[in-house]
């Protein structure tokens, strides 16, 4: 669907979405993983993608969104089904698991009354917190703490240096080393 968009995984826990027509900066930075991103797969629709990380989680991102909308645990690889309604994951216990790509979506026939109730629920924005494992939650807190410390250190260096000697660089442009034509 979107042949000009692609995503690149990085070992700095982020994925970078690019537009092939404009490679000087990333279109979006997806940054929810806690460890190096190992695998990316797009469904045929091209509106979202699934990533798998060394932290043993799978996350589903919109191609232009910064944060994941779904998270699954204890997996080593992941792929979308051909109709983009399921994510198939493999784990080190030699099992394949089938996950719904949209966890809140009901399978089967939906009655009009149920559809109306579901729309009301979505409008009220009353989503419950996803059940994140303790280790993943604690690792996320540690990662945010480290990122905040790095930002404070950079701000202090900038404050105590000559004006203009340390210009701010966008996170989108941060990972582009060299563009070859």
Automatic annotation (TrEMBL):
It is found in: Nucleus, Nucleolus. It holds the Pfam family WD40. WD repeats lie at residues 75-109. Residues 148-181 are annotated as: Disordered. InterPro entries: Quinoprotein_ADH-like_sf, Sof1, WD40/YVTN_repeat-like_dom_sf, WD40_rpt, WD_repeat_DCAF13/WDSOF1. Keywords: Nucleus, Repeat, WD repeat. GO terms for biological process: maturation of SSU-rRNA from tricistronic rRNA transcript (SSU-rRNA, 5.8S rRNA, LSU-rRNA). This is Nucleotide binding,protein binding protein. Its main location: nucleus. Residues 136-176 form the Sof1-like protein domain. Residues 148-157 have a biased composition (Basic and acidic residues). It comes from the Eukaryota. Coiled coil: none annotated. Belongs to the WD repeat DCAF13/WDSOF1 family. GO terms for cellular component: small-subunit processome.
């Amino acid at each position: 669907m979107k042949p000009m968009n692609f995503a690149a995984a990085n070992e700095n826990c982020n994925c970078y979405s690019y537009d092939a027509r404009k490679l000087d900066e990333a279109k979006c930075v997806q940054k929810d993983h806690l460890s190096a991103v190992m695998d990316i797969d797009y469904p045929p629709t091209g509106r979202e993608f699934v990533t798998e990380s060394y932290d043993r989680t799978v996350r589903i991102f919109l191609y232009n969104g910064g944060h994941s909308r779904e998270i699954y645990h204890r997996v080593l690889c992941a792929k979308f089904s051909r109709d983009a309604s399921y994510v198939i994951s493999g784990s080190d216990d030699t099992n394949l698991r089938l996950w719904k790509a949209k966890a809140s979506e009901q399978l089967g026939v939906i009655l009009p009354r149920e559809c109306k109730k579901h729309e009301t629920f979505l409008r009220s924005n009353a989503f419950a917190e996803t059940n994140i494992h303790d280790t993943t939650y604690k690792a996320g807190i540690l990662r945010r703490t480290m990122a905040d410390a790095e930002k404070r250190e950079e701000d202090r260096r900038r404050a105590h240096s000559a004006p203009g000697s340390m210009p701010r660089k966008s996170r989108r442009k941060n990972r582009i080393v060299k563009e070859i034509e």
